[in-house]
Design goal:
The protein has 20 helices and 11 strands. The chain is of the alpha/beta class. β6 (315-318) and β7 form a beta hairpin. The chain binds adenosine-5'-triphosphate and magnesium ion. Residues 40-43, 80, 82-88, 335, 369, 373, 417-419 line the site of adenosine-5'-triphosphate.
C-alpha cells in the first residue's frame, strides 16, 4: 500500500477552534437522580449528593475563570453497609456523565503485587480514558472523510491504480480503467465483494500493553517508545490476506488515526481531566486504620499519605503532559464497618467534607430491587429463560417470599444487603435453569409454594444458610 504523507495537521480539526466542546449535554441534578432511580432503589441522600457534585462540575466551568480557580470540588464520602448500592451508584454515574470518570479500589494500592503501585497512576488512567474519549469524538468528526479515503484505498487494492507510465496510455485505456473502477465501487457499496480476498499491510504489535508497567519510571520509558513507534518504527509490517470487510475495518481505522490530530486530542483530554475529572475511590475503608501490622501489605497509612496530595491538588506527569489535580472530584466509598472514617488520617478526612450514609436494605427494598430496576434480577432471569423458549412467570407472593427470606437470612447471619438476592434467586432458579432446554410445558409459574420448596432445606437450617445462601 502506498505511503501517503500526512496532509496538514489541521486538516482534521479545521480552523483554530481550540475550545473544547461544551459538555452541555450534562443532566440537571434532578435528571441525574431520575436516571439513578432506574437502577438503584432508595439511597436518596447519596444520589442527591452525587448529583449535586456532578452538576457543580458543569457550573464551575461556566464561572469566570479567576473565580473558577478558587472553587474546589466538595469531595463526597459515601458510607454504608455492604451490598446496599455504593459501587452500583458509581457504576451508573460513570455512564451518565460525559466527564472522564475513573473508579478504582483504594485497597488496590495496599495489595501485594501492587507494592509500590503509585497512586499517581490514578491520574494517568484518568487521562488515558479522557484521551480515548476525545479521540473517539474526533474520529467521529472525521468519519465521513475517513470512510471516503478507506473506500479509495480498498478500490486500490481490488484494482491497482494505473501506474504513471500507464497514465500516458491512450485515453480509452484510462477511460476503461475508470469505468471498471466505478463498477467495482458500486459492487463494493452494494456489498457484493465482501468475501473477496485482498492483501493488506498490517503492523505487528510490538510493545505489550502499557498496563504491565505501573511504576512511574517504566511508564515514562513506555511513553517514549509508544510515542516513537507509531510514527517511525511502526513495528514490523507484514502482508496479510483478508476478506474485503476486514480490510475495510482496518483501513478505516488507519485513516481515522491519520486524520485525527493527536496533539489536539491530548490537550483537550488533559483539559477535561483537569476541569471535570471524577475519581471514585471505592473501598476507602480498606485503607483506613492506622496500621495493618502484619503481612507484606503496603502500609495503609502510607497509601493515605500518597493519596493526599492528589486529592488536595498537585501536578502529575503523564505521557500526554502535566495534569493539575486541583479540580478533580473525588468520591470515596466504603462500608466502614470495622474502620471508621475517623480512622483515616485527619488531613484526608478533611478532604471529604460531604458525608452521606446509605441505609441498609429491608424486605420492602428487596421487593423493589427484584422487580423495578431496568436490570432487575427477575427481568434478567426471565430473559435468560426466554432464550430457551421458556416463559417464566414469577408471582407477587413468590417475590414477597424471596424478599422475606433475604431479609431473614441477612438478619440471622451476615447482612450482605442486596447481594443476598443474587444467591437466593440463583437457588430458586436452579432446577429450572438446569432443565430449561428439556422442559416441556413452555410456561412455568413460580409461586410462593415453589419458592418455599426450593429453599426449604436452607431456610430450616440456620447453619447451612451461612454457607449456601
Ligand atoms: N439500592 C439498591 N438498588 C438496587 N440494587 C442494589 C441496591 N443495592 C445493591 N444493589 C445490588 O446489589 C449488588 C451489590 O451492590 P454494590 O456493589 O453497590 O454494593 P456496595 O454497597 O458497593 O457494597 P461493598 O461495600 O461490599 O462494596 C449489585 O448487584 C447491586 O445491583
Ligand atoms: Mg462496593
Amino acid at each position: 500500500m502506498a505511503i501517503q504523507l500526512p496532509k496538514s495537521m489541521s486538516e482534521a480539526s479545521g480552523a483554530p477552534k481550540e475550545r473544547d466542546r461544551d459538555l452541555e449535554a450534562e443532566l440537571t441534578p434532578q435528571e441525574i437522580v431520575a436516571e439513578l432511580d432506574k437502577y438503584i432503589i432508595g439511597q436518596k441522600a447519596a444520589k442527591k449528593a452525587v448529583a449535586i457534585a456532578l452538576r457543580n462540575r458543569y457550573r464551575r466551568r461556566r464561572v469566570p475563570s479567576e473565580l473558577a480557580d478558587e472553587i474546589t470540588p466538595k469531595n463526597i464520602l459515601m458510607i454504608g453497609p455492604t451490598g446496599v448500592g455504593k459501587t452500583e451508584i458509581s457504576r451508573r454515574l460513570a455512564k451518565l456523565t460525559s466527564s472522564p470518570f475513573l473508579k478504582i479500589e483504594a485497597s488496590k494500592f495496599t495489595e501485594v503485587g501492587y507494592v509500590g503501585r503509585d497512586v499517581e497512576s490514578i491520574v494517568r488512567d484518568l487521562v488515558r480514558m479522557a484521551v480515548d474519549m476525545v479521540r473517539q469524538e474526533k474520529a467521529q468528526e472525521v468519519r465521513a472523510k475517513a470512510e471516503m479515503n478507506a473506500e479509495e484505498k480498498l478500490l486500490d487494492l481490488l484494482l491497482p491504480p494505473l501506474r504513471r507510465k500507464d497514465n500516458h496510455s491512450p485515453e480509452e485505456d484510462i477511460q476503461r480503467y475508470q469505468e471498471t473502477r466505478d463498477k467495482l465501487r458500486r459492487q463494493l457499496r452494494d456489498g457484493l465483494l465482501e468475501d473477496r480476498q485482498v492483501e493488506i499491510e498490517v503492523r505487528e504489535r510490538m510493545s505489550p500493553p502499557l498496563e504491565i508497567f505501573s511504576n512511574a519510571g517504566v511508564e515514562e520509558i513506555g511513553i517514549q517508545i509508544q510515542e516513537i513507534i507509531p510514527g517511525f518504527l511502526g513495528g514490523k509490517t507484514k502482508r496479510r490476506k483478508v476478506k474485503v470487510h476486514e480490510a475495510r475495518d482496518h483501513l478505516l481505522d488507519e485513516e481515522e488515526r491519520r486524520l485525527v490530530d493527536m496533539d489536539q486530542v491530548a490537550r483537550l483530554a488533559i483539559g477535561r481531566v483537569e476541569s471535570s475529572g471524577i475519581v471514585f475511590l471505592d473501598e476507602l475503608d480498606k485503607i483506613a486504620g492506622r496500621e495493618s501490622g502484619r503481612g507484606p501489605e503496603v502500609s495503609r497509612e502510607g497509601v493515605q499519605r500518597d493519596l493526599l496530595p492528589i486529592v488536595e491538588g498537585t501536578t502529575v506527569h503523564t505521557r500526554y503532559g502535566l495534569v493539575k489535580t486541583d479540580h478533580i472530584l473525588f468520591v470515596g466509598a466504603g462500608a466502614f464497618n470495622v474502620a471508621k472514617p475517623a480512622d483515616l488520617i485527619p488531613e484526608l478526612q478533611g478532604r471529604f467534607p460531604i458525608r452521606v450514609e446509605l441505609s441498609s436494605l429491608g424486605k420492602d427494598d428487596f421487593i423493589r430491587i427484584l422487580t423495578e430496576p431496568e436490570n432487575a434480577l427477575i427481568k434478567q432471569y426471565r430473559a435468560l429463560m426466554a432464550t430457551e423458549g421458556l416463559t417464566v412467570d414469577i408471582t407477587d407472593d413468590a417475590i414477597d417470599e424471596i424478599a422475606q427470606v433475604a431479609e431473614d437470612v441477612n438478619g440471622e447471619t451476615e447482612d450482605i444487603g442486596a447481594r443476598r438476592l443474587h444467591t437466593i434467586m440463583e437457588k430458586v432458579m436452579e432446577e429450572i435453569s438446569f432443565k430449561a432446554p428439556h422442559i416441556k410445558p413452555k410456561t412455568i409459574t413460580i409461586d410462593r409454594a415453589y419458592v418455599r420448596a426450593a429453599l426449604k432445606d436452607i431456610v430450616k437450617n440456620a447453619d447451612l444458610k451461612r454457607f449456601i445462601l
